[in-house]
Every structure is written in structure tokens, then in C-alpha cells.
Amino acid sequence: MAIEVRIPTILRTYTDGEKAVEGNGATLAELFADLDTRHAGIQARIVDKDNGDQLRRFVNVYLNDEDVRFIDGISTKLADGDSVTILPAVAGGMR
């Protein structure tokens, strides 16, 4: 089962600069674990192990353009051909 994962610029150091990579898994949790086997360290930037293996607070993840926080979070089920987009929340700016 191939899932396309779109990687934001800030995490591309883990994917050797690749904008998109493929992964496998029946759920987001399995997908992120699979990605970490080829792109060591990326899972820790997305998943907060100290908070019960939940998505990090300032990381938004979309499954086929739907926010997974409104589906089943990290337990969201995946299907072959799905597209996952990882977007870190951005804050700040000038006053």
C-alpha cells in the first residue's frame, strides 16, 4: 500500500531534500513509523511520544485535504493511493 507524503521545507533535511516521499501503513501512526525507518528522526518531529503518541501540537496533518484532528488523529485509517500532507503551524511576524 503506497501513501504519498508531502514534506514541508523545514522537514526536508530528513528526506534528503525530497518534497514528497512514499510510505506504508494502515494508520497514520504506522505510516510515520514506516517513514522513520528510511528517514530517521522525522517521526519525532511529528509525533509527541511524551504525550501518548499524539500529533505534536504545532504540526497539522491532512489526509486528502482533510485535517486528521477532525477524523481520528494519529489513528486515522489510510488506504492505498491516499495523500498525506504535513504542515507545521507558523506563528509570529511583525507588529
From TrEMBL:
Protein name per UniProt: MoaD/ThiS family protein
UniProt xrefs under Gene3D superfamilies: 3.10.20.30
Alphabetical list of InterPro entries matching this protein: Beta-grasp_dom_sf (IPR012675), Mopterin_synth/thiamin_S_b (IPR016155), Sulfur_Carrier/Prot_Modifier (IPR052045), ThiS/MoaD-like (IPR003749)
Species of origin: Streptomyces qinzhouensis
